[in-house]
Amino acid sequence: MAKKTENNRFTVISGGGSGLGMALAGEALRRDKNVIITGRDEAKLIDTAAILSERKGTGTIIPFPCDISNQEEVDNLAGFIKENDFSVEYLFNNAGTGSFGSAAGNRSPRVEEILGSNLTGMILLTSAILSITPADSPLTVVNVMSTSALVGRSTETVYCAAKWGARGFTEALKAELKGTNRRVVAVYPGGMNTPFWAEAKGKDVSAFMNPADVAEEIAHAVFSAARIMVTDITINRP
After folding, report:
1. Would 129 be classed as within a structural domain?
2. Is the residue at 2 inside a domain?
3. Residues 1-30: tens digit of each pLDDT
4. Number of separate domains in the chain
5. Which residue among 30, 100, 135, 157 has the highest number of C-beta atoms inside a 10 angstrom radius?
6. pTM for this entry
């Protein structure tokens, strides 16, 4: 699956098959970064990689199917990176699933699915990448959350719980990695016009932000670290 490259440094992006994740992968490739995109839908990842590989840039893109809420699949991804002597320089925790409805309707296993996609997966993937990255290798962890990690929203109780948990994890991670050559960037984007809203039946997202515009803002802040240091980014519609 791996394509030979002279540069073994990679950017890992979860939820990279569509929406913001796909746009972030495009921004990384445009900057000549090598990219691994992950997601649960292998066919979608392959299609996305084929589309992005046609764009300008010298970077390599590798689609790697992985359910980040599943420890075994996360371990398989980490093993693939190690076996190929790849080094992760950027990790974008971007995967997430929306959940909309009355708090009275929250039931298992849907609750666990939302927590797994938005919180557990972030924790497991971050831990795996940290564990295989040498302490002297620079690493930037970018946790893409939502403005729902900053405010409570009606009909989004479980989703907000997951995102508030992700925010807590992010802040604790910042404290743990302070003083090292590993940095953590927290990103809180507002509504984007992506497949994320598929469950919110009847919701008009036509005026929501273009994920390509959001990705451009995030990429500028993250990949320009030599000139600036951004730790928190909130992006809203005008």
Report:
1. yes
2. no
3. 444 455 899 999 999 999 999 999 999 999
4. 1
5. 157
6. 0.92
